[in-house]
Design goal:
mainly alpha; Alkaline Phosphatase, subunit A
Length: 168
Amino acid sequence: ATEGYITDVLTAAALEFIRAHKEEPFLCYLAYNAPHSPYQVPDKYYERFEKQGLDPNVAAFWGMCENIDDNVGRLLGELHRLKLAENTIVLFLTDNGGTAGVKLFNAGMRGGKTSVHEGGSRVPLFVRWPARLRTPRTVTQLASHIDILPTLMDLCGVERPVGLPLDG
């Protein structure tokens, strides 16, 4: 049986997969469920924010974010240790805007999760690929998650399958 906090468990499984496939091209899709209800996180992450007098759900939410930071750090650290970091494309993104159930900072945008307004649909996307993307920059053109697959295929020199419709 698998035990532990799900974000930690998913990261451990991803690291195991990467180690097993380090000698060949690989795709590792690591989809964390946090930060999301139920707002549960290991005590060491919760207590730091709870001590600041935050609402318990807000403290747990920020603790979940800190746990994600630590796990992304584990992932990037292992890529460095395995000498894969330079030529591995790492994307970090979310699936929707700010949560509607816990009132948190939403950069002043209208709406939240499930909303058609910018606060519900605008999400971050960070792309890290040291071998090809050497200068940090902000891209302001409108894009969507459906653009990721064709973009990655183009970056990796993968031909689009003939006869297979592909959005993006």
